[in-house]
Structures are given as C-alpha cells and as structure tokens.
Amino acid sequence: PALQTAGAFAKMQRAVLLDRQALLMLDVARTYFQVMHSEKQVAVLKYSIKVARQRLADIQVKEKTGVARPVDVFLAESQLAKTQNELIQAKADVKNGRAMLAFLIGVPAVKGPLTGGLKIPSINWHIDTLLKLTETHRQDLTAAHERVKAAAAALEAAWGEYFPSVSLNLMRYLSRDTFPNDVDWTSMIQVNVPIFQPD
To answer: Going by C-beta distance under 8 Å and a sequence separation of 6 or more, which residues neighbour residue 51?
Structure first.
C-alpha cells in the first residue's frame, strides 16, 4: 500500500504539472489575442481622432460665422479629448500585453506584427463526446482521481499497521561466535500483535 500511495502521488503530481502547462498555454493564447484586439483598437481610435479633429475644425468655423453654438464646440472638444484618452489607454494595453506575452513565453520582448491564423473546425459536438474528452484531456480531473487513489492506498497502509508482524534480528546472530540456544532464538525473533483494533 505504501508503494501504491507513492505511485498514485507521483501520477497526481504529473497531472498537476500538465494542468499547469495547459493553463499557461491558455494564458498565452488569451494574452496574444488581447494584444491583437488592443492593436486593432489603436488603429480605430487613431482614425476616430482624425475625424473628431476635422469635425471640431468645422464646428469652430461654423461657430465663428454664427451658425453653431459655443456649446457645440465644447462638446466636440470633449469628444476629442475622450477619444485621445482612450487611445492612450489602448496603447498602454498593447505595451503591457506584449510585455506579459514575452514573460509567458520566456523571451526578452515580442516585436513585429501579430497575425491571427486560428481556424476552428465546424464540428457538432455532443455531450457524451465532450465528457469523454474531459476524461482523457482534463489533467485537473486526472489529478483528482489520482489523489483519491493515493488517499485510499494511504488508508490501506494505515490499516496494515494494525496487522500482526514478525521481525528477525540477524545482527544479533551475526555478532555471536557460537550457535544460539533456545533463549537466544527468542530474543532474535520478535512477534508484534496489536492489542487495540481500529473502529
């Protein structure tokens, strides 16, 4: 049982490491696509700023001619400032995301454009198929099963401590020059019978 406990514990640790590896890969993919999203957002916001500046210039001209109200100019300036603030935040997200991606994959920096080449196959998954996949690919479930096996083997090992045991002291015999008599045999062989039994 002690050997079974050690084996189940080793399998559990392996499954835990594989589960951590899968989580790391998910973090890499999530960060990768988040950086792509932020970069697309930066491009959109840059274009929005150009449009907002042109709109502000038009409103300022209309306000000077008396066609537009001063409050319209303030609203256009506010919208432009808001878009510029969003652009600053999006650029910071790109910078932080690339730094996190570099940390996750273990490189000094991630430079160059990121391209999305993920193709998801169009498969109609069924519940039974997904459950079978979880039994073979979900390492956290495998670790939980192995943890249960390790606990059961440890329980058997604990029960084994209450069984009678016999021990033989050969060192006592090897240290003597003569053949042991009856009294020496009794001192060399020891039988352990537990008095208390577990509930």
So the answer is: none
In order of start, what are the domains of the chain with their CATH numbers?
Answer: 2-115+140-150 (1.20.1600.10), 165-199 (no CATH)
Q: For residue range 130-165, what is the model confidence (pLDDT) as tens digits?
A: 778 777 778 888 888 888 888 888 887 777 766 667
Global pTM value: 0.61
Q: Cα-atom radius of gyration of the chain, to the nearest Å?
A: 36
pLDDT (tens digit, 9 = 90+) per residue, 10-21? 888 888 888 888
Among 116, 88, 113, CA closest to 98 = 113
Mapped onto helix, strand or coil, the DSSP state of residue 165 is: strand
Cα 20 to its chain centre, rounded Å, is: 4
Calculate the alpha carbon distances from 37 to 51, 54, 105, 165 in Å. Answer: 21, 26, 19, 68
